[in-house]
Amino acid sequence: MRQLLDEAAKGGYGVGAFNVNNMEQIQAIMEAAKQTTSPVIIQASRGARSYAQDRYLYHLILAASELYPEIPLAMHLDHGNSFETCKSAIELGFTSVMMDGSLKPDGKTPASFEENVEVTRKVVDFAHERGITVEGEIGVLGGIEDGHGAGGSGLEHVTDPDQAVEFAEKTGVDALAIAIGTSHGAYKFSKKPDGSVLKMDILIAIHNRLPKTHLVMHGSSSVPKDLQDVVNQYGGKLKETWGVPVEEIQLGIRNGVRKINVDTDNRLAITGAIRKVLWETPEKFDPRDYLKPAREAMQKVVALRMTQFGQAGHAGDYKPISIAEIARGYADGTLSTKPLVAN
Length: 343
Ligand code: 13P
Fold this sequence. Notes:
It contains 13 helices and eight strands. The chain is an alpha/beta fold. It has an eight-stranded parallel barrel, surrounded by ten helices. The chain is globular, with a radius of gyration of 19 Å. It binds 1,3-dihydroxyacetonephosphate. Residues 19, 78-79, 145, 184-185, 218-221, 261-264 line the site of 1,3-dihydroxyacetonephosphate. 1,3-dihydroxyacetonephosphate is lined by residues 19, 78-79, 145, 184-185, 218-221, 261-264.
């Protein structure tokens, strides 16, 4: 992951991090990566690890790396809630972990700054020794995903740029998730978001202070109306809602965003495709009859995002370096963990 993000910074593009729970989602991402020649981040939350049994996910992603050797691939833990969760992911084979110390281990209650620094630092020390990348979070995102989250609109704990600087300095994280008013799930905004609810000015202020730090945007599904419409056309009951417009994400990418988390858009694409098949041909009962269109619908969304985020065309720019080499880089200081701070 560290190499993937450093390369994205060099190339001035962002990399989508797509959540998975099953084989079809992994296949959709890899086919989209092949189609667009993109490096990829596949991520699994704690919920995904327990739903699928994480060993299945590990071997499916290993299969993906064997089947698509030309695609640089990071396997990332999304929203680790404790040192133990991150440790178990690293021991299983994840090449990157998120320690979300913005919340207490219950995954719901906001933690203090000091608690966040302490647990994140501990994960960074353990991970870097083993060549594994760490994402931290400062500020608290809105919404709840897979049971993880403080809820709310995401405006309650927007990241303070000074705290972001202190957090980056004290923890040595490789990537920094910030809270700028986005939230997990489909219901982010009640109308097209403007600067009063989506705080791109805060993101830019953080980037100006930490110009070399890889920023991460969570809750970044765009929740496009066409995907909502398919779900509702075939018996779904989604309420009117807005996500994060792609042009705002692109503004973020011009200001240090290197990783963009997307889950909901793919969930909508999959559900819409399955609903359509079951609605139009109720006599069908072979799961492949609806999982194949579902996989294709997700691939279409992922390929589009890969193009919009700018990662398309970059899979062949570099050769993945080994985890052991990355560990040496952290140990000898070639891979910096000290952020560049501008005033
Ligand atoms: P969405 O719900 O906007 O897709 O966000 C996913 C996410 O941030 C995962 O960490």
